[in-house]
Amino acid sequence: MSGGGIPKSTINREKIQGITWQNNCIVDELGWFDNVSRASKELQYFYNKTGIQPYVVLLDYNPELTTDDAKTAYAEQWYEDNIDNEGTFLFMYFAEEDADNDVGYMCYVNGREISTVMDAEAIDIFWAYIDSKWYSDMSTDDLFAYVFEKTADRIMEKSTTGADVMVLLVVGGVIVAVGFIGYKTLKVKNARDKEKAEETERILNTPLEKMETDADNLADKYLDT
Where are the beta strands (DSSP E) in 30-148? Predict the structure, then answer.
């Protein structure tokens, strides 16, 4: 987990292509949104980043839906009946009888074309943002705009992982090693150049008579041998 309890994103995700944006993407039976039309437009940020159509449905209390499984099945059927594409991420909220005081059941339905983006890790990130703001003082409009925006930003930009750090360290080590070899090679070359320069200077500063004498001595030495 990262700061604030939001999981890291460790997967490179590509934006979904071919899904047409639909502005009417909020159904509010509870009257919790202040401006449904404006709030729908705010959700377009998520679409622009991911290519996925977001959809939010807040439902009145239904006494016939008594279990979580029944509510999940209802959400899946609602998707089939009301959404005509497989590129939508549907969030559905089932209110309790005391809708203003009891937190209801929440679930999601993924279209078949978006699993490469809204994978298990991305879903965890989405729920973490929901959890972080559900009990805040934010309006419903601002809450969903925040959750979908932050989710899009996080899941579409890969976080640095331990494996990434290791790659950077290995690459950095290779660069340092190459630099060290180059330094040693240059140092040896400079030393040889210095020796050559010193030898040249010694020869230039040696009197001709001494050089001739040294040459004669060396010749005599080899002749004796």
Answer: 53-59, 88-94, 105-110
For 1-35, b/e burial (b = at least 16 CB within 10 A) is: eeeeebbebeeebeebeebeebeebbbbebebbee
Note the pLDDT tens digit of each residue in 55-78. Answer: 999 999 999 999 999 999 999 999
Distance, CA of 43 to CA of 55 (rounded, Å):
9
pTM: 0.71
Higher pLDDT, 3 or 77: 77
168 — pLDDT class (breaks 50, 70, 90): very low
Give the single-character DSSP code of 135: T
Q: Could you tell me which residue, 11 or 174, shows the higher pLDDT?
A: 11
CA distances from 208 to 22, 197, 215 (A): 99, 19, 11
- How far is 181 from 191, CA to CA, in rounded Å? 15
Burial code (b: 16+ CB inside 10 Å, e: under 16) for 165-186 equals eeeeeeeeeeeeeeeeeeeeee
The answer to whether the CB of 68 falls within 8 A of the CB of 104 is: no
**Structure tokens of 215?**
């040459």
Rg (Cα) of the chain, in Å, rounded?
Answer: 37
Q: Is the dihedral of CA 150, 151, 152, 156 positive or negative?
A: positive
pLDDT, position 111: 97
